[in-house]
Amino acid sequence: MSSPSFNPWNYKPWWCQPWSIALTGTAIIGGSWMLTKIIWLTVAIALPVLLWMGFFLLVWPKLMRRMVMNANELDRSSE
């Protein structure tokens, strides 16, 4: 089992931290609305941005933890 203290964000630079991803995505979506005031354009911009944010904030950390857990299991089984 992986160490409960494993934090995949420790291996990413400052510009790829949860706060910077959320801030950038929010700024892009909010900026598109503030500049255009066109709902369909804002939605068209928001969908890929939200997918990007969802992947890097929710999916990627789980995949990293699973990868570390699998690597630890392989290390123990080869001993």
Descriptive labels:
mainly alpha; 79 residues; 2 helices; 0% strand
Describe the 3D structure.
The protein has helices spanning 18-36, 39-77. With 79 residues, the protein is mainly α. The protein has a domain at 18-69.
How is this fold's topology laid out?
Elements: H1 18-36, H2 39-77
What is the N-to-C order of secondary-structure elements (H for helix, E for strand)? HH
Largest sheet: none
Shape: elongated
Q: Would you tell me the structural class of the helices and strands?
A: mainly alpha
Q: For the terminal residues, how far apart are their CA atoms? A: 15 Å
Supply the number of helical segments.
2
Q: What's the overall average pLDDT, rounded?
A: 92
Low-confidence parts: none
Radius of gyration: 18 Å
Helix percentage range: over 70%
Number of strands: 0
Portion of residues in beta strands equals under 5%
Quick recap:
The protein has two helices and no strands. It has a domain at 18-69.
